[in-house]
TrEMBL record:
Name assigned to this protein: Heme-copper oxidase subunit III family profile domain-containing protein
Location (main, coarse): membrane
GO CC annotations on file: plasma membrane
Transmembrane segments: 16-37, 57-74, 95-116, 128-154, 175-194
Span of domain Heme-copper oxidase subunit III family profile: 17-195
GO biological process: aerobic electron transport chain
Amino acid sequence: MASTAQSIRKRLPGSAGFWFFIAIDALLFILLFASYAYDRLGDAEQFRRARAALHPVPGAIGTVLLLASAWHAVRAVHAAREEGAGVAGVVYSRLVLALLWGAGFLVCMSFQYAGLIGAGAGLTTGGFHMYFFSLTGALLVHLLAGMAALIMIVRRTTDEGLRDGKYLRFIESGAVYWQLVVLLWIAVFALLYVW
């Protein structure tokens, strides 16, 4: 057991190819963030007025929910690395909790979208709204992809599945992607709600 734990600590979670995908995906968001910053600095007053119409509560609650979800995903990976009876149940429950917290985030964002759209905001109502809907829309696509990955992992989470050598890489990759989604949301939240 000690040698298995040591070998896990000596490598990145997931696969090298998956980390390349994560890096490219993060780079694309960084370019979007830079574009937002450039445009915001060019028209700070319009961005400030449009941002004032945002209700920060759904975004803040969504942030807490995603952080809780990320914690459960990490705990699922830690549990999957253990051996013994009942491990599959722990992994399964942690992943389901991660999914539920992620679904809660979707509910929060639906309230935010409904409020903005109800007030007449859209992609064409100004630079801030274009970025708001583009950044959060891209993030929501990533969130849904992450939830789909977690659902696939949950379906494979059995005592038999845990013994499959590929399962650990599968759950690690899913959790890494989920952490990326959470980190991206924190950056989006800071740009759109705070700055």
